[in-house]
Fold Secreted protein.
Amino acid sequence: MKKIFFLFLFISSFSFAQNKDCEFEINEETDSTYTKVLPEKFVYESVFGSTTRFLSFKLYNIDGVLGLNIQFIQKSSSFLTPTCIDKNTKIFLQLSNGKEVKLINAIDQENCTTLNYDPETKNNIRVLNGYFNFTKENFEFLKTEKVYLVRIVTITGEENFILNPELKSEINKETSQPDSFFIKYLPCFGI
């Protein structure tokens, strides 16, 4: 009986620990619709000279359509070239098994980085937001394979981001495992 109690206690604490990763930023459900969005997670950060670049992901599920919201931010005292996406923009995730997963743009219009200026730090800041839906092609591999490269093919060229096993962010002072992002967070949506 004592062993069963400890086993139950272990299973309960294990499932609670897993649910901590699944705290939704938005979790709304009505009779006919639902929206679930996980909080933003940094997956790439580069600080080189006066230029900082970072990429963050948010997984979402809206009425059964699973997607990825990306935010690409650049800061520099130098001029920053605009990045634009349109309906033909795609994201390719290169996996550790050599396979590739493709995401397609969910928005059917052109969207370019907005330019802001921070007078305090004297930095130009460009921000790009995009929403991409998963295709069925090789999607299953995301549950078990790490992602080592994110390639965003845009109107204005390609942006490549190498995802490391560990990221110690200078910006938000957190440590994460970007290459395991999908392995960790897809189960939050019952996938």
In short: Confidence is low (pLDDT under 50) at residues 1-18. The two ends are 34 Å apart (CA to CA). The chain has one domain: 2-189.
